[in-house]
Each structure stands twice: as structure tokens, then as C-alpha cells.
Design the sequence.
């Protein structure tokens, strides 16, 4: 069964078609890949599905769980269970990782367990989500927050960008956990290494 349907989705930015007549079904409980070279519109498609500002004026329709979400803003789509992990994860100055994960889960989460699932030690809980974390660490923290919130649909934009091989293995393990726990995953990538997983 399709959790997400794209029906003739098109999007023009600055007078240029970035997406044109995109049709797809994303099956519930599966891991899907959106593949193509840089500049092909993969991230733009994710932004349109998420309903980010500047990416909502689409042609066609986006159907989630049988209902059109075309008119919904990003917050309304998030409440329906859709989330996006950025290619470049955000920093939250002054917020500890523990508080960040608790907020992601609505206050109920085993922080140590979630950190372990993404390959981070328990002592990370008291670190800040700031510039002291490496790019790979921030990707793992973002993925931990997604595990904590248990979304229905998660889009991972270039999950392998800027991280080492060991970190990439942990990210693949976390993707498997997401699937096992019932999330549908869309991987946005140009990497053959990601597709082989």
C-alpha cells in the first residue's frame, strides 16, 4: 500500500522547471531511493513533499495516507508524521543532546538506547548540539532524533554526505531500525555505496 503518492508533481523556481510531471508511489514500511546526479532536483522533491516555504507552489498533487497535503504547511505535515533529515544538520546552541532528543520524542525516550542505536556513547547526552560536534556526529544526533520521534515517513537527504565509513555503517543500521519500527524511508542520494545497502 502506498503511504505517499506523487501525482504529476511539477515545481518552477526562478522561472525554471526543477520538477516536471513526477509520478511515484512510496510503499508503506519500505526503504526507497531517489537517485540522480547533483542538481537533478532530488532535494527539491523532498522539500516539496515536506512543504517547506518556497517549495509549496506545486503543480499536481501530493497524497499522504490517502489525503492531499498540498495545502498544508510544514508544521501540519510534520504533525501527520512526515520528517526530513537535512544534508547539513542544524545546530542548536545551548541545547544538550539529551534535551534535544527528549523534545523530539515529546519527553519520553531512552536517551542512552537511542544514542547506542546510532553508534554514540551515553556521555554524548550532556554535550551541546553545537559547533563542537563533527559533521558525522551531528548526522548521528539528527538520526537519533528521528528514531526518537518515530515518524511515518522520513526523508534522508544525502545521509552519507561528509561522514566516514564507520559512521556510514551506523547510519545504515539506524535506517534498518527505522524500517523495523514501522517508518517508511526515502533515501535521497547520488551514491552507489548507499544503494548497495
Sequence:
Amino acid at each position: 500500500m502506498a503511504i505517499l503518492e506523487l501525482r504529476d508533481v511539477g515545481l518552477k523556481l526562478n522561472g525554471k522547471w526543477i520538477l516536471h510531471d513526477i509520478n511515484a508511489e512510496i510503499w508503506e514500511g519500505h526503504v526507497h531511493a531517489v537517485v540522480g546526479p547533483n542538481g537533478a532536483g532530488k532535494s527539491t522533491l523532498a522539500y516539496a513533499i515536506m512543504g517547506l516555504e518556497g517549495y509549496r507552489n506545486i503543480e499536481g498533487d501530493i497524497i499522504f495516507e490517502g489525503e492531499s497535503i498540498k495545502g498544508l504547511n510544514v508544521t501540519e505535515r510534520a504533525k501527520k508524521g512526515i520528517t526530513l533529515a537535512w544534508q547539513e544538520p542544524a545546530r542548536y546552541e545551548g541545547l544538550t543532546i539529551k534535551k534535544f532528543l527528549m523534545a523530539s520524542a515529546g519527553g519520553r525516550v531512552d536517551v542512552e538506547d537511542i544514542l547506542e542505536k546510532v553508534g554514540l556513547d551515553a556521555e554524548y547526552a550532556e554535550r551541546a548540539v553545537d559547533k563542537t560536534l563533527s559533521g558525522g556526529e551531528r548526522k548521528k544526533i539528527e538520526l537519533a532524533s528521528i528514531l526518537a520521534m518515530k515518524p511515518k515517513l522520513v526523508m534522508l537527504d544525502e545521509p552519507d554526505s561528509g561522514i566516514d565509513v564507520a559512521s556510514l555503517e551506523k547510519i545504515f543500521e539506524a535506517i534498518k531500525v527505522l524500517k523495523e519500527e514501522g517508518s517508511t524511508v526515502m533515501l535521497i542520494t547520488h551514491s552507489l555505496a548507499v544503494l548497495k545497502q
User: Anything to note?
Assistant: Residues 86 and 127 are 21 Å apart (CA to CA). The longest strand covers residues 2-13. The radius of gyration is 17 Å. The mean pLDDT is 86.
